[in-house]
Amino acid sequence: MQTTDHTPQLLNRLRMRQVALMLAIHQYRTLRGAANCLGMTQSAASQMLHELEDALGEKLFDRAGRGLQLNSAGQAVMNSFRTLQNNMTALAHELSELRLGSAGKLSIGCIMVAVPTHLNSALVGLKRRYPRLSMEITVDTSDHLVELLRGGVLDVVIGRIPATTGAAEQDLIFQPVAAETISVVVCRDHPLLSQARKKRLRFDALLAYPWILQPRGSPSREVIEQEFLSRQASLPLGLIETTSILVATNLLAFENMIAVIPQSIAINYEQYGALSILPYSFTHGLTSWGSLVHRDRPVNPIAQEFLSLIHSGTIV
Prior knowledge:
D-Maltodextrin-Binding Protein, domain 2, elongated, five-stranded mixed β-sheet, Arc Repressor Mutant, subunit A, alpha/beta, 12 strands
């Protein structure tokens, strides 16, 4: 059974002013508030809304007291209009950079495990080719980075794809790069190190000390919570939560605490004498990490080159 493509007709009938009206109604929750924001009369705004609903063939709002509330069709339209708004914001920024004679700006989000290896190499390679390119790097957990990617704040994320539960969340394109192992680390004179020299550490030995973990919702935190659950143990009291490796390693230097960080970073710190890795392996593992871009947002050539460098595996 063939379906008719109404896209050309819809593009001919839609106006950017209607998009702005939808966004304003959603923000102010009333037609009057949206009309004042756009500098038009309420009757003109009402007429414009009717024209938009007629073009789409769907009612978009339900009455909620004296205001308006998006229905299911309205929510679908709003999601598309927000994406359009983000794209227009990015376009305006890119055009402004070009007028100023800049090579542009690339906003990257990255999880900690990729920083000392793949990210560092890709940034060096990109900077050699585009000396005037501005780059903004945000290091955080995958869940937070994906939120920024969806909001149009980031161009690309190096992290893990979150679990999808519906079609609305399948808006990301993920390409794997590598797997990650996490390590349990302590200060160089931690009491557990004397036990570790004699034999492999038992899980129970780790429970006597306070832990430093990433916040709940991050992939490594989920692996650790699975470990405690499988051991029928509760997370230690006095838990410190942070996404900062710097905070974690500084705390380890002053207190007999335990932290969990990516193995690639732990090995570097151990080589420089900043901490020690305990001989303990988690039962559960992390999923592979890789590159993430938004499915409905075009990837510009510089971002595409950055992705190629990330996936090439070349480490400087």
